[in-house]
Amino acid sequence: MNEHYCIINTQYKPITDKLNGYGFKIIPVEPSANVSKPINSHADVLYLKSNNNTLFISDCQHNNIRLLNTFGFDITTVNLKPGYKTECRLNMVLNSQTIICNPDTCMNLYSIKKDKKIISVKQGYTKCSTIVLPDDNFITEDEGICAALKGAGKNCILIKKGCVKLDGYNYGFIGGASAYLSNNKTLLFFGNIKQHPDYIKIKELCDKLKLNTDYVENMPLTDIGGLIEL
Fold it and tell me: CA dist 142 to 91, 160, 177, 230, Å?
């Protein structure tokens, strides 16, 4: 694909406008009854990109499955159901070397494991809870994820939890309130990250990695389910 697409919850126009400014064409998540209502349009729950050409997608995303097939993606559909253990099947962190997941809640890893190292954690909403940056750098609010990553020799900074808005829950997760835009080397936050108590810690890591930081103004830091960059 020559054009730059992303799959995202489109309920927040300031966010999609910001992404348009970065050159993205938007594919809206189809709201789903297959997961709990507050996260029914969250890309990080309904989609998993395994590599450049492979997508695992909740079988409820009918229109997008047809569209992404025309783009040439190899697509496997996955059945999700509302509830912690049945809606987290795709909610894991993947990069070129590592799979970070809760083995009790994620889908069978046989088709994506290959030569990747599996780091097991107790948090089923693993991707929601984690910002994935280049060169095995991570940011999370989850103490267990942070400890597991550090134990595996990864660089991870732990930030304060409870600072992200998610309607329907007491709070959301930092991974769902942000997206690393690889083409732009930018960590974009969905809301004012400068109000986060650990903003300086986050900015220092990004500066060290020579990454830009940006945020959507005039809204609180909000978990919208991240995005899937195609």
Answer: 15, 9, 15, 27
Counting DSSP H helices and E strands in the chain, the numbers are: 7, 15
Which pLDDT score, from 0 to 100, does residue 10 have? 97
CB under 8 A, 24+ apart: contacts of 204-211: 205/133, 205/137, 205/139, 205/157, 206/133, 209/133, 209/134, 209/135, 209/137, 210/185, 211/133, 211/134, 211/180, 211/185, 211/186, 211/187
pLDDT at 1: 52
Opening angle at CA 59, ends 54 and 65, nearest 5:
55
**One-letter amino acid of 31:** P
Question: CA of 85: how far to CAs of 59, 61, 69, 107, in Å?
Answer: 17, 20, 28, 10
Q: What is the mean pLDDT for each group of 10 consecutive residues in the chain (230 residues)?
A: 86 97 96 96 96 91 96 95 95 90 92 86 97 95 97 96 96 97 95 97 97 96 97
Spatial separation of the C-alpha atoms in residues 33 and 30, rounded to whole Å: 10
